[in-house]
Structures are given as structure tokens and as C-alpha cells.
Amino acid sequence: MEEETVNGGAQTECFPVVNIMHLLQLLTHCLQRCPRSYTVQELRNLVVLLCRVALDVRLQTVVFDIEMCIAAVLNCFGEMQWPDEVKELCSIVAQLSTNHRNLLYLVQIQPPSTYGIELQRRLSLTLLHWLVLKFHKQEETGKGLVDERCDVTVPDSVEVSSLVKLIAKIKPGDGSDYFLLHTIISLVSIAVGSEDLPSKERASLETLTNKLRTLNGDIKDPRAAFMNRTKVKDLLVRTILRLAYMTQCIKPSREHPHITSYFEYSSSDYQVELLKGNGDDENVEELPGNEEAEAMTGVQEIDCSTLR
Prior knowledge:
Blueprint: E1 2-6, E2 9-13, H1 17-33, H2 40-54, H3 63-75, H4 82-93, H5 100-108, H6 114-141, H7 160-168, H8 178-192, H9 202-218, H10 227-249
Antiparallel strand pairs: 1-2
């Protein structure tokens, strides 16, 4: 609620949340009905606009409508356009804010569609390259870097091995920014994703899990006296457990060998001969069967005339 003074009198003005919700629903409907009626630049501008709208704390009740509208925008990109557009969208969205929590929120509101998940993972890895470097500089200088925007190159693909290298650079201490570290661990979890990874990523995923265990041990939080460190350690434990379960669910690189592969074929000339029966077959006499005697009993005929 905002109060403005008009002609000496107080006037109460409400933020039009309902109108914005209806506008988002109308825009989503138009994008779904005519997905090929918009240019690439118009779709980029819509993504930027929706992300900026999502950062408004007064619109927390329409987050679902914002996600559906973003999903409709992403579905408008063709299959041939998407590989180039996902890199362009990552570079645009990563520069919308200087606050790492706002950027984490923009990553989290991406829709759970095929394009949305890919954008989410690629954007997470892009921000990780920037935030890990920022965390490392803060450890060296002891000063926070303010008003800096992400200017790193968007990676071509998301590989777990690249996450291992980033986590290896983190060395937390007593004066570390654990609020920033919490964001970094959250982005690591999102970058790994929840989908089934290929078998070649199994070793890297195990290494990443071990690196996170080491990082959890490096954070000193005696008796949970520091709330910021406690939150980071709690997030690390939950992430480690999830990655451990994902590692167990990864299918092996090759199928288990057939049971016949455990046996060796010999070149021996031994042959198995069947025993032949000697002598004539014995004649078996069949005993005559006993005929059953049928006892016939008299049948009493009932005169139908006696029945009523």
C-alpha cells in the first residue's frame, strides 16, 4: 500500500497484482497459440522483462504465472535456433543483477521443461565461474567486490568435471563470506541437475561428492555457534546425500556379461556315448480288467395321475 497526497488529501494506491497476473496469462496464451509470430529479439526482450518482473517482491503471488510465461517464450525457439540462443540468454540473464541471491532466484524460477532445465544448468555453471572467482578474490583481499556484474564466457556444455575444478578452488576460513558460499553450493546442486547422467560422468560425480565432503569438513562450526556456517553445512550434507544416491543410480558403462562368458570352451576330443540296451524287451502281460457289475434296482414308477 502506498499513500500519495493529491490536492491536499491522502489517497491510497494499491499495486495492481491482479492486473499483472491477467496480463501474464494473456501473454502466455498468445505465445502458445502463435509461437512462430515473434522475432528472436522480441523473445529475448520478453525473457529479460519477465526476469525483471520476477525480482519484484510484490509479485511473489504470481510466480507460477511468470514461470509458465517463461516456458511459453522458450518453446517459441526452434530446435536449430536453441543451441545459439541458450548461450545468449545465459549471458543476458547473468547480467541482470549484481546480487548473487537475486541471480540464484532467477535460476530457480526457470521452468521444468526441456529448454528450461538446459537453461537452468547452463546459467548455473556460468554464474559459478564468476562467483567462485569472486569468493577467491575476497579471500585474498579481505574485501567484498561490490557492483560487479557477471562477465564470464558461457560454457558450451555442462560437465561434472568442470564443477570439480571449481569446488577445488574454494578454501573457506574464519572470515569467509558464507552467505556467498551458500549460493555457490546451491548453484552446484542445480548445475548437476536431477536427471540421469551418462555413465561416463560417474567417476566425476564421485569425485565431486568427495570434494564436497572435504569442504564440509573444512568449515569449522563448533557447537553450531555460527548460524551462517550451520546453514552451509546443512546444505552441503543434503547435497552430498543426493549426489551419492545419483551415483548409485547411474547405469554401468556396459551391460553385465552373459553367464556363458564365464565358461571356457575346450578343444578336447572326448565324446559322450549313450549305453545301448542288451537283450530282448520283456513282454509285460496285462491283467484283464475287472468288469464292474451293474446292479439294477427296480424303479418305482409314479403314476402321474396320483400327483395333484
